[in-house]
Amino acid sequence: MKDLSLYILDIAMNSVRAGAKHIAIRLEEQDVVLTLTIQDDGCGMTPEQVKRLFDPFYTTRKTRSVGLGVPFLQMLAQQTGGDVSISSKSDTEYADHGTLVTAVFHTDHIDFIPLGNLTETIVTLIQGSPNVDFIYCHSMSRGSVAMDTAQMRSILGEDIPLDNYEVLNFIKSYLQEQYQQL
Amino acid sequence: MKSLSELAAIREQMKDKVAIRTGSGDIRVVVGMATCGISAGARPVLNTFVEEVAAANLTEKVMVTQTGCIGICQYEPVVEIFEDGKEKTTYVKMTPEKVKRVVEEHLKGQKPVSEYLIGNTKL
Question: Is B38 close to A181, i.e. CB distance below 8 A?
Fold first, then answer.
């Protein structure tokens, strides 16, 4: 994948498919260390599943027998001298189930890739899952960009879904402008 | 600077419209958005569909949705179009440029773009 925003889209899709109602995507840049966390309240995984997650030949899907999402992210993080860690609570055992993916990258490493269009990734996620609440926060030394769909939903009311075209366009420019103002 | 209060304006605007739900589902455009799709370029394909469908005033008739891996990763980005009473159409190796033609000729003109179909595409 060409840029980090595509990896984020891919990993957040796992949260969507885990039936999450809330997904928080956070990017924190401190000096040359970028920490990405994706936290959800989806069905979670058992310790055994988490262990096998880094194995590209492990997947629960039926349409193909490989699962490359997490291995890709891990490869990218490790290439830059960072790593990926995953903690999860399965809904078979916990009431507060969900998964937390943490990836650390060194942005000064030659193998780090561009961040890409993070706004597009967030808008794409909202378009695909208008009923999920997304929190997005990207903090840098020069400021931060943030968004919470729950807040938007409370203004819009129940009748207007977040995948309404006008709403999606608003969210896109809302984030773009925040980035431009940094 | 955009402020969240603009959403209240959108809500007011929408009040007058009869159909505020996006897409009644007469036509369903489904874009594969698993790892295979995303790495092959599905994100701009999806977003071009969303934009072009809105630009063509088709949002009440056409619903653009996402799905996981369809199982033909070598053909990604894959787009399936479901229409009431018709057989499914599968477009493969899609690009934003191809999307524009599909919206124009298939969704608007009701004539599938044959050269983009899976049966007419070499790997």
Answer: no
By residue range, what is the domain housing residue B101?
Answer: 20-120
Query: CB distance B71–A63 less than 8 Å?
Result: yes
| CATH classification at residue B62 | 3.40.30.10
pLDDT at position B19 is 52
The tally of domains found in chain B comes to 1
- Chain B nearest CA to A78, separation (Å): 19
DSSP string of chain B, one letter each residue: ---THHHHHHHHHHHT-S--SS--SSEEEEEE-SHHHHHHTHHHHHHHHHHHHHHTT-TTTEEEEEES--S-GGG-S-EEEEETTS--EEE-S--HHHHHHIIIIIIIT----GGGBGGG---
Calculate the average pLDDT of chain A: 95
Residue B95 lies in a domain: yes
Percent over 70 (pLDDT), chain A: 100
- Inter-chain residue contact B35 with A63, CB threshold 8 Å: no
Q: How far is B89 from chain A (nearest CA, A)?
A: 19
The answer on pLDDT for A117 being more than 80 is yes
Q: Provide CATH code, domain A4-180.
A: 3.30.565.10
